[in-house]
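Hi F.,

I've been meaning to write this up properly since the lab meeting, where we talked about keeping a consistent format for the predictions we share between groups. The idea is simple: the sequence comes first, exactly as it goes in, then the structure tokens exactly as they come out, then a line or two of notes. No screenshots and no reformatting. I'm using this chain as the first example so we have something concrete to point to.
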Amino acid sequence: MHPSESGRITCESIYGAQITAPLSKFVFRPSVYAIVIEDGQIFLVKHRQSGQYVFLGGGIEIGEQIEEALRRELLEEAGIQIEILSFLHFKEHFFYFDPQDQGYHSLMFFYKAQPVHRIKGDYKNRPKNDTEEALWIDLSDLKREDFYTPFHEVYDLLFKDGKNQY
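Output, unedited:
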């Protein structure tokens, strides 16, 4: 059923439950994320509500180019200046952020990137509302279920047949 017929959208709650919410609760949210891998480790953020990993990144501001937003987000979240290597994946996702009673029609862009400069500072003490600190995690320690659901497709692209494709 098309959402305009029922006036509601079925989506995933930030806690992983399937819920149905009214269209009036949803906004568009274009966002961009970096897959940063270096020396057998990947740079991730742990999601505060679910305890699962997400890639660093976030919302694209009106008037901001996608790659510009990615550079800004990595600098803000982790103090890392990056070189963007290539576009990796696009995903559309409907989710509901329960703590703010807000639904999102998310348009997610994923890029491979590498760090080129780390800014000194304590970025662990600057979490956003929904994330904890950024961490370098050994690739060999990760499983698909460690990631928040909308990031499963990217995990699958990175670890085809259990082998790192980066």
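Notes:
The mean pLDDT is 86.
The CA atoms of residues 3 and 9 lie 6 Å apart.

If this format works for you, I'll send the rest the same way.

G.
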